[in-house]
Design a protein that fits this description.
Elements (H helix, E strand, L loop, with lengths): L4 E3 L18 E8 L7 H14 L5 E3 L17 H17 L6 E10 L2 E10 L2 E7 L25 E4 L3 E4 L4 E5 L2 E7 L9 H7 L4 E6 L7 H15 L3 E6 L15 E5 L2 E5 L14 E8 H10 L1 H9 L4 E6 L23 H23 L7 E4 L4 H16 L7 E5 L7 H13 L3 E4 L3 H11 L13 H10 L8 H16 L3 E4 L3 H6 L12 E2 L6 H15 L2 H10 L21 H5 L2 H14 L3 H10 L8 H17 L1 H4 L28 H7 L1
Parallel strand pairs: 2-3, 3-4, 9-16, 10-11, 11-12, 17-18, 17-20, 18-19, 20-21
Antiparallel strand pairs: 1-16, 2-15, 4-5, 5-6, 7-8, 9-10, 12-13, 13-14
Length: 684
């Protein structure tokens, strides 16, 4: 304990001890505020220990600034009685953590070499393991800290000897390492500075940053405070836990709200109630608890080479106080979104849809501006969601640029699996959106192609001019025998050929289909420009709904909302006896909400399959899926993802709209012949 390891900031990428396993390391963190009796350390330690009992399942607990004494003691900080009482309860707090398996961080005033510092003490297993002093001491407006406290500069003693507690590492160059968790600590005003200490700490390897604060409540300040916490966690590619003083500290001209937050890489993942929030006028305890994901942070740091460069350029050395006997966390308190591409319904979802739709339209506008003014835009309209979204983007783009919507040529091309519902939806949609429309029945062309190829669809002998007999023969086939990939591919490529021979083609395929290879190579896989290329299937429906409700009314809106209810199908296999859809994509592949979940975690965070499956078990999907079903669906996803890279290696241009993209020119470069075995083995 007395000889912490010393490392430079540039050592952030060094190999670190892990928690239960490097690939599955959650840490439960609580930022907490407890009642405070100003100037009564014994009572405050009682309150703190009560809070620890409330959060005994958390591995890390951080309290507010000067939590053992009270922040608003004023000139009482100069009283030996208070300073000695605080040291006594610090030893009491340390003893309370013995064998608890918790890292607890409390705030107190501490005299070192005749100077008084505002410090944070890190306590673990019965001992004070590190003490970190505050660097930026505010002395303006309502703050008057410089009257009592000395700002730490780095010239302080490397350790302090406290009666009953021994020799303890002291300084602004300390990090606490516990397995794969590396903790940096700063105090209140430190965060608000141009170069916060936590920035240097993260460069030194810290992946969890703690802030002990006493930030008073002012109009607009909570939003600014939250923005600071979120942005600092994102800038540092770290988790950030912030605990502020509560209303029992309020005195004279200031009110403290007990604002506690936990953020992770730019996202707020837990937040407490606070004074002034949702009618809250008083609270005794406030806390924010979340399971942070070290694997996710490790991945993001590993792939962000500019962050690594910043760490290499940082020159401040840090000492690491290494703790032993890491305690594991199962991650059960982590909020795992079942639909990571889709925000919760409400304003956030509307903003997301508006932003994406705007990006799609701006991207298409730029591409079309480079085309001859008279060149028409062709798009295949199926009556399904993907082609509907692409058409909506094209129409909006024309309106924004004062181009006639008749420049868009929608072609619906009914085939052997097209139902009356989707065909009528396609016809009605083109009419209501005032685009040029045409219809080509491709069945005869495909039938002639089968004859030219000498192909026997479904094993049925066909003769020239006998397509009616063929259709009757297909209807007589049992459903399980209606499998013929050539039959499907000919239709998909026929549609693409007709579109390509006509003019500039807008693609309609989405991100989920690219991931699964659910397209026909050089068929619906190809176009001149694809506005849907990075839109996942789970988001397409919400985008169409958003546009329907915000851009249209009357019959057009009703038509669009009706399309939302259409089952997902390529409609390439013959319809059933009653003309209904026989080919349901999700019955073949599994639910798209699972595939999109798998895609997000595999690509965005490089997550191992076994861990993806565990995260899926924590998510709340639209229905309950068994563990075996999710495992089988994940196997399907992995096999198809690897097997179909050759299609993704030559997809057309299209706008990137989110953090996950499979464009071979920007985000995802993968050999077409990569082997999936290691990923499947991890799933076993």
């Amino acid at each position: 304990m007395n000889n912490p390891q010393k490392t430079s900031s540039g050592s952030a990428g060094d190999a670190l001890p892990s928690f239960a396993s490097d690939s599955d390391s959650f840490v439960r963190v609580t930022a907490a505020t407890h009642p405070v009796e100003v100037g009564n350390p014994m009572a405050n330690s009682d309150f703190a220990m009560e809070s620890l009992r409330r959060h005994r399942d958390s591995q890390v607990v951080v309290f507010g600034e000067l939590s053992l004494s009270g922040y608003s003691c004023g000139d009482l900080f100069a009283q030996d009685c208070l300073l000695e009482a605080v040291l006594k309860v610090l030893a009491r707090m340390a003893d309370a953590t013995r064998a608890s398996g918790q890292l607890v961080v409390v705030g107190l005033p501490l005299q070192v070499d005749g100077k008084l510092f505002n410090v944070a003490a890190a306590i673990f297993d019965g001992q004070v393991r590190a003490i970190v002093p505050k660097q930026y001491v505010p002395n303006y407006q309502e703050f008057y800290e410089a009257r009592w406290f000395h700002p730490a500069t780095g010239d302080e003693p490397a350790s302090v000897c406290l009666e009953g507690l021994g020799n303890i590492p002291f300084g602004i160059d300390l990090l606490v390492q516990w397995g794969g968790l590396i903790v940096g600590i700063e105090i209140c005003e430190d965060l608000w500075m141009p170069l916060p200490p936590s920035s240097w700490q993260s460069a030194g390897g810290a992946n969890l940053l703690l802030n002990l604060s006493a930030s008073n409540e002012l109009i607009g300040k909570p939003e600014w405070r939250e923005l600071l916490v979120r942005s600092q966690s994102g800038r540092c590619l770290a988790a950030y836990a912030y605990a502020s003083a509560g209303p029992s500290e309020s005195t004279t001209d200031v009110v403290f709200g007990g604002h506690c937050m936990v953020a992770e890489n730019g996202s707020l993942i837990a937040e407490s109630k606070r004074i002034g929030h949702a009618g809250c006028t008083w609270l005794e305890h406030a806390d924010a608890t979340a399971d942070i994901d070290l694997q996710k942070l490790r991945h993001d740091r590993r792939i962000t080479n500019s962050w690594q460069l910043a760490c290499d350029r940082a020159t401040k050395p840090f000492r690491r106080v290494v703790l032993k006997a890491a305690r594991t966390c199962d991650g059960s308190r982590r909020r795992v979104s079942a639909h990571p591409f889709v925000p919760e319904p409400g304003p956030a979802l509307e903003r997301r849809c508006s932003e994406i739709f705007g990006i799609q339209c701006a991207a298409l506008s730029k591409r079309v501006q480079r085309l001859p003014a008279e060149l028409p835009l062709y798009i295949g309209i199926s009556g399904g969601l993907d082609s509907t979204l692409a058409l909506l983007v094209a129409v909006k783009t024309c309106v924004q640029n004062d181009w006639p919507t008749s420049r868009i040529h929608g072609i619906t091309m009914p085939g052997f699996g097209t139902t009356e519902k989707t065909l009528n939806s396609a016809r009605e949609l083109m009419q209501l959106l005032h685009v040029s429309a045409s219809e080509i029945d491709i069945r005869g062309l495909c039938f002639q192609t089968f004859l030219a190829m000498g192909h026997r669809p479904f094993g049925i002998d066909i003769q020239p001019g006998a397509m009616t007999d063929f259709l009757e023969a297909v209807q007589a086939l049992p459903k399980q025998q209606r499998k013929d990939l050539i039959f499907e591919n000919v239709q998909a490529r026929m549609r693409t050929m007709l579109l390509m021979n006509s003019g500039f083609v807008l693609g309609t395929g989405d991100l989920s289909e690219q991931a699964l290879g659910w397209s026909t190579y050089n068929g619906d896989h190809m176009s001149m420009y694809n506005v849907n290329t990075s839109i996942p299937k789970t988001l397409v429906k919400f985008l169409v709904e958003y546009v329907a409700l915000n851009e249209y009314e009357g019959d057009a809106r009703a038509c669009l909302l009706g399309i939302l209810e259409t089952p997902i199908s390529p409609e390439l296999l013959p319809t059933g006896a009653a003309g209904q859809i026989e080919q349901h994509t999700e019955q073949v592949l599994g639910p798209y909400e699972l595939h999109d979940f798998f895609l997000y975690h595999l690509i965005r965070h490089g997550t191992q399959p076994s861990r993806i499956l565990r995260l899926a078990s924590l998510a709340k999907f639209s229905q309950d899926y068994s563990h075996d079903f999710m495992r089988a669906t994940l196997r399907t996803f992995l096999k198809r993802f690897f097997a179909n890279q050759f299609k993704r290696s030559c997809v057309p241009d299209g706008p990137k709209v989110g953090s996950v993209s499979l464009s071979p020119r920007g985000d995802w470069r993968m050999p077409s012949d990569a082997e999936v075995s290691a990923w499947l083995e991890d799933l076993e």
